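In full, the data.
>
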Amino acid sequence: VQGLMGSGVDPHLYKASEGDVSKLTNADVVFYSGLHLEGKLVDVFERMGRSSNTVALAEVLDKDGLIGSEYFASSYDPHIWFNIEYWKQITSYLADELGKIDPKNADFFEKNKLAYLEQLDQLEKEVRQTIATLPEDKRVLVTAHDAFSYFGKEYGFEVVGLQGLSTATEAGVQDVQNLADLIIDKQVKAIFVE
C-alpha cells in the first residue's frame, strides 16, 4: 500500500506530480475517497477510468443521505469519514472490491472486514456514550475548516467553521467577528484549530 498524500497535505489543493501519475498508472488498484475530495487529482482518476481498477469509495453511499455543497464538483460535502455508519458501508465495499481484484485472498479480506466492523461498532458505542455526557445545548463544534458536518448531523452538534467547507475559501473580518460573537453567546468551551 502506498499513499500519495502525506500528513498535513490538503487534498483539496493537491496537484499530482509526474511521479505520482506514474505510480497511479502502474498501480494494481487505486482507492480514493471520492466526491471530489481529491480536487485536481480527480481529473487523473477520471482519465484512468473505472476499468483500470480505480475505485472511488464514496460511490457506494446513498446520495440521498449526503450533505449538499456547492463548493465541490460532486455537489456533496466529501468529508464522509466523520459518519461511522458510512465508514462501515465503505469497509464492506472495499473488502468486496479487493476480493474481486484478488479472489485468492477474498477470505482474508472478509475476515479483516468483519474484525474492523467490530472495531467500528465499538467506536460508535464509545462516541455515543461520550456525547451523552454533554448537554444538548452545549453541542457546538467550532473549527477553522468546516469538515465536520456529517459528525454534526449524526450526533446532534451545531458545526461552525470559520473557513467554510472548502479550504479554498477565505474568511473575512466580518466572518471572524460573527464567529467570535457566537463563541461568546453560546459560551463555547473548546475550539478546534488546524
Residues 106-132 form the longest helix (27 residues). The CA atoms of residues 48 and 122 lie 37 Å apart. The chain has a mean pLDDT of 86. Strands lie at 30-32, 54-56, 140-143, 158-161, 191-192.
